[in-house]
Design goal:
alpha+beta, about 120 residues, globular, five-stranded antiparallel β-sheet
């Protein structure tokens, strides 16, 4: 929802499982949304980004849209995740919107394909 060339804030974490990189998680927000929160702190957050936005900015997230794509990692992603540049990754982009439909927060998850599987369950009614 930002104009082309607009600046944004990114908070990134590398999650591990038994010492192996398992997920690269990047949270993206516009600078005005991130301002006045603890998101710029290098410390682990004591609450979720969703809770932080609601408590500090009075922003209530209404719904999210998820997009999953299989692709090759960027050079930086391959290095951080300790995988081959031609190894498959799952890219999960989750965009959270407020009730007006304005995009507020984007989570960009990069999952090494050989370390993950996605399973979903849903009713047919």
């Amino acid at each position: 929802g930002l104009e082309a060339g607009a600046r944004a804030f990114m908070r990134q974490r590398l999650l591990t499982d038994d010492g192996e990189p398992a997920e690269l998680a990047s949270a993206w927000l516009s600078l005005d949304v991130a301002a006045g929160t603890d998101l710029a702190s290098p410390d682990l957050l004591s609450e979720s980004i969703r809770s932080l936005l609601q408590a500090r900015k009075k922003i209530r997230l209404d719904h999210a849209v998820e997009q999953i794509t299989a692709r090759h990692p960027s050079a930086e992603e391959a290095e951080l995740l300790r995988i081959s540049p031609d190894a498959p990754v799952l890219s999960v982009i989750v965009t959270a919107y407020d009730a007006t439909g304005r995009p507020i927060h984007v989570n960009d998850l990069v999952l090494p394909g050989q370390r993950h599987e996605i399973r979903d369950a849903y009713p047919f009614t």
